[in-house]
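Recap slide: 4Fe-4S ferredoxin iron-sulfur binding domain protein, sequence and predicted structure.
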Amino acid sequence: MSGEEYLPLVKITPDEKSHITLKDAKHCKTCRLRACLYVCPSAVFFWDELEEKLDIFWRRCVECAACEPACPQNIEYENPRGGYGVSYHL
């Protein structure tokens, strides 16, 4: 599902590189809350039960930055580079 299908009033021009990174992917295995799964309004974060890892679908990020305060010890959020990211239209 692309960003445009997920949120019809938001145009997302994804960069080739994610603007959301994990400091330590192993940390997610021991995290009990996994708050990132619940705070993101566009479902950027997904826990893969089979592989026991966090997947980040950064291409549909709406740049609210709620993920970093939800997990400041492991998530690093930056705004996308100029020309990429969200533009809102009606």
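The chain has one domain: 3-88.
The chain has a mean pLDDT of 91.
(End of recap.)
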